[in-house]
Amino acid sequence: MTLKLKYISAGFLAVLLSQTALAESFKFHQDHVLGTSFDMVVDAPNIQQAQKIKSETLAEIKRLEKILSTWSPQSEISKLNKTGAKTVSSELFYVLKSCEIFSAKTDGAFSCRMDELIKTWQAAEINATEPSHERTQQLALKAEATVITLTRQTSSVTKPIDFNFNIDGIAKGYIIDKALQAGIRSAQGQGLSGRFGIVLDIGGDIAVHGLIDNAHARVGILGVNAADNSAPVETLVLKDQAIATSGSGKRDLKVGARSYSHIISPFTGRPQLKTQQVSVVAPKAETADALATAFSTMGVATALSYANTHEGVETMIITAGGARFTSKHWKDLTAKTVKKSAAEAGIANPLPKGFSVNIAYKIPRINVSDYEYPYVVVWVTDMNKKLVRSLTMIGKQPLWVEENYVFWRRVGRKFPAMVETLAQPSRAPGQYNLVWDGYDQEGNPVPQGEYILHIEASREHGGHQYVKQTLNLGDDIFEAIIDSGDELGQIDIHYGKDH
């Protein structure tokens, strides 16, 4: 018997996994890891072994965070930035050396010397005043010309005292690689040998190891500014590989009325204008992380040439104008679609072409000292309350799901391996958006008719809310508004042509 587990990342990425009878897939989620979300799937014989793998993976992340976090004033990188010369740990030395290596390999398109420029643009957001071209160009030239000495024999770094490194473009990938290795060592130390698999996702950067779904993990890439649970625009099959995506989205800079990419070009000192989104697959997360940034600034032709001449590196680039380009062997990674046509599914009256259900809801900020983000579940049933499609779950797994007791009683406990959970950077309360594309849990198009949309939210130290709305899905547009409650704001539902 094969059970299915589906795991969706709304920031950019989605992982679709299966499990065989030889092992179980255990899903773990935790917020506020490296300032974002931590999601992990472990295929192991039992939960105790999976939890040990998870614990040792997290321990390695926390250890490296104390070294590499630019957000913590107590981290080693922050202390180095306050000095002119210092002997550093082997981990920090490696990352700084990798920064310089990737800068050389990409002819300067990747740089860890952008701290002053990044702070200049952050100040521009606050002041609503765009820095001049002359100013940003001067800062870019200054960063490139700064003399830095890295002495391998003594692991020492020498730099101007007023110069700061910003290693965010590579540190997360490096930490993912090291944490994955810690998880692998934990599994091997428990005698699991080849009978385990790991998918590690930190804020949308993902690394895969081992046997998952018979040695394959299905990793989906969401489109630019996609809804939280949109279907992937691309689905890849990866094994012992990593993937990172950079592009337009919630991290964009806003200066006055204008929006800019958060990726600053080392060449101009200004937000890059070449691409909307770049995805890179590589043998290591460190490489994928750095190249996703570099490819965003170096130009499409140069980026494709780099990928096509470096073994194990593949990329998909969506330009600022919306054109799609891929490297030579990208197509070899793509998975076959699992959706069926109406004819294949035997459905005589599917929803009209291009019609979908769009659900917009708001999580309000509640002014309490111990505020926690709510756990949210959204699902669709037929009029007999039989599950049609689980649209999304947001929260910790597996312990949190029973808090949403309506979902758990009616659906969750009957499908213990069916999980759809957001794996995106933690977000403050605000507007969320979901889309139901008219397909059921098995990839079959649903017939026209009446369905029930269910939305449930519960919050640690807080309340519980459950609402439902009948959906009339036919040839005509359908709209509904559900009044706000304590845990969810107003819910707007629109059925019709895709926007």
What is the correct CATH architecture of one domain? Sandwich
Please report the first level of CATH classification, the CATH class of one domain: Mainly Beta
List low-pLDDT spans.
1-22, 396-401, 415-428
What does the largest sheet look like?
A: 8 strands, antiparallel
Write up what this structure looks like:
- The protein is α+β, with helices and mostly antiparallel strands and 499 residues long.
- The longest helix has 22 residues, at 47-68.
- Strand 24 (478-482) and strand 25 form a beta hairpin.
- The radius of gyration is 23 Å and the shape is globular.
- The protein has helices at residues 47-68, 76-81, 90-105, 115-127, 133-145, 168-189, 285-298, 300-308, 342-345, 405-410; strands spanning 3-8, 13-19, 24-33, 36-44, 85-87, 149-151, 156-158, 197-202, 205-210, 217-221, 234-238, 242-247, 253-255, 258-260, 275-282, 314-319, 324-326, 355-362, 375-381, 387-394, 431-436, 449-458, 464-473, 478-482, 491-497.
- Helix 1 runs antiparallel to helix 6 (168-189), helix 6 packs antiparallel against helix 7 and helix 7 (285-298) runs antiparallel to helix 8.
- It has a domain at 342-497: Sandwich (Immunoglobulin-like).
Secondary structure layout plus pairing:
Layout: E1 3-8, E2 13-19, E3 24-33, E4 36-44, H1 47-68, H2 76-81, E5 85-87, H3 90-105, H4 115-127, H5 133-145, E6 149-151, E7 156-158, H6 168-189, E8 197-202, E9 205-210, E10 217-221, E11 234-238, E12 242-247, E13 253-255, E14 258-260, E15 275-282, H7 285-298, H8 300-308, E16 314-319, E17 324-326, H9 342-345, E18 355-362, E19 375-381, E20 387-394, H10 405-410, E21 431-436, E22 449-458, E23 464-473, E24 478-482, E25 491-497
Antiparallel strand pairs: 1-2, 2-10, 3-4, 4-8, 5-7, 6-7, 8-9, 9-12, 10-11, 12-15, 13-14, 15-16, 16-17, 18-21, 18-25, 19-20, 19-22, 22-23, 24-25
Helix pairs in contact: 1-6, 6-7, 7-8
